[in-house]
Amino acid sequence: MGKEEDQEAESLCVERNYLDTLMDDEVVEDKVEEIILREVTSAGKLETKATKDFRDLAAYGIVDVVGDDTGGRKIIVVSASKFPAHKHFNNECFLRYLMATLDQYVNMDYSLVYFHHGLTSKTKPPLSWIWGLYKVLDRRYKKNLKSCFIVHPTSFIRVAYKFFKPIISAKFGQKIQYVDHLSDLSRFMNLDRLPIPNEVLEFDRKKNNSSRQIIQRNHFSWTPSQQFGVNVEWILGNHKTEIPPIMAKCVSFLSHSDCLETEGIFRRSANTVVVRELQAKINNGEDVEFKRIDVHIAAVLLKTFLGELSQPLLTYELFESILHFSGLSKESRLSYCQDIVIKKLPDQNHVIVKYIVQFLSLVVDRADMNKMTAANLAVVFGPNLVWSKDKMLSLSSIGPINTFTEFLFSNMHKIFSM
Questions:
Q1: Considering the domain 9-215 in this protein, what is its CATH number?
Q2: Sheet containing 145-151: which strands, arranged edge to edge?
Q3: How many Cβ atoms from other residues are within 10 Å of residue 30's Cβ?
Q4: At a CB cut-off of 8 Å and minimum separation 6, what does 15 contact?
Q5: What is the pTM of this model?
Q6: Considering only CA atoms, which of 248, 27, 43 is closest in space to residue 132?
Q7: Bridge partner residues of 176 (DSSP)
Q8: List of E strands, 200-246
Q9: CATH of domain 219-415
Q10: Residue 369: pLDDT band with limits 50, 70, 90
Q11: What local confidence, expressed as pLDDT, does residue 394 receive?
């Protein structure tokens, strides 16, 4: 390496150290933009060989997939506090891991939540990588991203975004939303289903004099008419029925031919305000007239009902058994699936699962028109039918859950023939 190259490398190292000092809301000088420009010059390439084994990266828990937000969009969560130190981390491999996660959802509307608190100079990815991320993620990834929530942004984040804003698309820029308080995020999604890192909760508590207990559900506050956010036992006990009323109403409405043949049914999102208003009315015991409701709103209500149950329809106890399903031989899968949904599910859950699967089989039958195959519906409904007690779905568990759910939807008649 020549003298000039040595000097350039040393200069860039000094500049990066300078950027590191700005991580904690220190005063940002004009020089930052010049340094950012130098850092992003060579970005946008993936040189690491492709890999399909992301188990090591999944173990960090940086990326999680949870249920739907209030608009019916899948939620991808990225937690900066879980990034390891640079020497233990390959940023390019992580980018591939993130892309592999998004690949399962880019064909439908989705939201991204980024918890920024907890990132340090030792764990912060280089700005060149962040810019590379934007350049590598093509239109497929950006088109259906409806909102990108940056939670607890620092001054550095705001300055960096200000720098990048002129060179990113205007439409993408409109999707970025700063969230200073977790309570603000609760307007868009159920915080109980988010895997919020403890350090983020503690930071928010100190900042806003609040705690997670404020956002957690408490069954003592449930009302007899409530259907969203409670458990199956509560609904059936108070409404004296085998099928939750809101589920029956959604399914009855969506079973009409014009609804079943709607392209992208269950894939498209809906107006968050409208969905929330309808949820409130239903929880208050008010009658909702479905004739005036858009198909996608009814579809989102059904997904939201399942995803906001205080316990998953397929139960916590069967989570590990469902993950094990994908490792079975094809010959063993039918009897194994029957054992889960017929023998091991509580009777009331079994009745509801059979009801929803029978309906979704009708959706699959019209896949030539609505473009929703069993595989597509599995991606949509899998995380809303089963999740673990810690509410997280890592990349390693998404695949098995989708495999099980797809089999369930594709083999409805065989499974429930017993």
A1: 3.40.525.10
A2: 63-68, 74-79, 110-115, 145-151, 176-179
A3: 7
A4: 35, 38, 39
A5: 0.70
A6: 43
A7: 148
A8: none
A9: 1.10.555.10
A10: very high
A11: 63
